[in-house]
Design brief:
Strand content: 15-25%
Number of helices: 16
Strand order of the largest sheet: 8-5-3-2-1-11
């Protein structure tokens, strides 16, 4: 009876502890804001909701990203069934541009010491737009940030200044101006800092955060999300596209090699997946493809480098214009474009030159390679015997008697019995040997 009572007491203690000590999910977003970021956030919210987490903590570090993805993420945070805490960290990082919208949309906004946020003015590259359209875009983004700031009770005027005037704020300035709620150095300090905060949910309900002692459960990215996040980097997408094209070309020149074709096809497919999602300029893609045509012309016509230089310029310019990103991090950098274009141009011209040279050389294998070769009769050919030719000893049949040691020319390879047909080498091909030639070999003319 005592034992049973003890077990019941222990069970009650465990249930009480579970009820008192809750948990918080933690998602780390240290990337540009792209469509894959939406998927990552959706999954984290679903996991946190199913696991019964009291809140989702997002550690944010981003230079910005796409406007469409930003709006989707902001909408998911505002309508999240569980509280969302956004923490800009670690020290030295930022939540710029799109990150500013995400930070202000959080139920609780926190920044680590030494971080900054803001500079959220919309940017459009590669397209000339008039001042009226620019003002419309800025007004649209300003309206969104006003809505977010109003919903979360933040400083609307200061939030709008980050959009219209690209103002940036340190963590101290953001706290002083009412853009964030707390400053915290680590994730545990974040939970303690926001503990006791009363937040107003999207549906008007007010919730009091009591999460100071909660356990923090990290939510890792899936393998698919990691791969997508990696290839969505415009620099990576360009490298995959360029190397894939070179590998496919190598496969076409050496049919059956398999490895170059497999690697090339996989690289190009991954690049297509990334470029299909990123804001890609297809005219710039055409420039990248045209570069390989220039490399081929250089190998064929040897223009003293003119075609090769044109190919490098075409690929470099095409690369830098390939992705029309709103921030420098979402475009192919000049360094990457040059680092890929110049070596790739040299390699492509070299390989194409080898291939063209090989096509022009006489075949040295098979019947075509044997015909016309000069050998030495190892035995007398009357008409059959042995001939040493092409580094091998062959059974041979002569069109006329040949003495041992005499030089002979191969006229045909008989595949049916693996013999070769020969004639005296000092006779013109297809012309009967002269009597003088027969006398030199020690035989009387017939």
């Amino acid at each position: 009876m005592v034992v049973r009572s003890s077990l019941l007491a222990l069970g009650a203690a465990v249930v009480f502890a579970a009820a008192v000590s809750g948990s918080v999910g933690k998602l780390t977003l240290d990337q540009m804001i792209m469509p894959v970021t939406e998927e990552i956030l959706d999954r984290a919210l679903e996991i946190s909701e199913e696991a019964g987490h009291e809140a989702l903590l997002i550690q944010l570090s981003t230079p910005g990203g796409l406007e469409t993805s930003t709006r989707q993420i902001v909408n998911r945070i505002l309508t999240s069934p569980i509280p969302v805490i956004v923490w800009v960290a670690p020290s030295g990082e930022r939540a710029a541009s799109a990150g500013f919208f995400i930070l202000l949309a959080a139920d609780a906004a926190v920044m680590a010491p030494g971080t900054n946020t803001g500079a959220a003015h919309p940017v459009v590259l590669g397209t000339e737009i008039d001042e009226v359209m620019r003002e419309k875009m800025a007004s649209d983004s300003a309206a969104l940030i006003r809505t977010i700031a109003t919903r979360r009770g933040r400083n609307v005027a200061e939030a709008e200044s980050a959009v219209r005037s690209s103002v940036s704020f340190t963590e101290e300035e953001a706290l002083e101006k009412g853009l964030i709620d707390r400053i915290a150095a680590d994730d545990r300090a974040v939970l303690e800092a926001v503990d006791g905060m009363e937040i107003r949910r999207f549906d008007g309900e007010t919730i009091r955060l009591e999460i100071a002692g909660d356990e923090i459960h990290s939510i890792p990215l899936t393998l698919r999300q990691r791969v997508l996040s990696f290839i969505m980097n415009p620099n990576v997408a360009f490298v995959l596209l360029s190397l894939g094209m070179l590998a496919l070309w190598a496969e076409f020149q050496n049919p059956g090699a398999i490895l170059p074709g497999t690697v090339g096809a996989l690289s190009i497919l991954l690049a297509i997946i990334a470029l299909n999602v990123l804001p890609t300029r297809y005219a710039a893609l055409a420039l990248v493809l045209a570069a390989f045509a220039f490399f081929g012309l250089e190998a064929k016509f040897a223009s003293n480098g003119i075609f090769g230089i044109a190919g490098v310029i075409s690929m470099t310019v095409g690369a830098t214009l390939l992705v029309d990103g709103p921030i420098p991090e979402m475009r192919v950098s000049w360094a990457t474009a040059l680092a890929v274009s110049i070596p790739l141009g040299i390699i492509a011209v070299f390989l194409m030159s080898l291939a063209l040279r090989a096509m022009k050389e006489r075949v040295t294998t098979g019947e075509a390679g044997m015909t016309g070769e000069i050998g030495v009769a190892q035995t007398a050919l009357e008409p059959a015997g042995k001939v040493f030719v092409h580094g091998e000893l062959w059974n041979a049949v002569a069109s006329r008697p040949v003495a041992a040691g005499e030089r002979v020319r191969v006229t045909r390879v008989r595949e049916e019995d693996l013999r070769i047909e020969v004639e005296p080498a000092d006779a013109s091909p297809g012309v009967p040997a002269s009597p003088r030639n027969h006398l030199i070999s020690g035989k009387e003319p017939s």
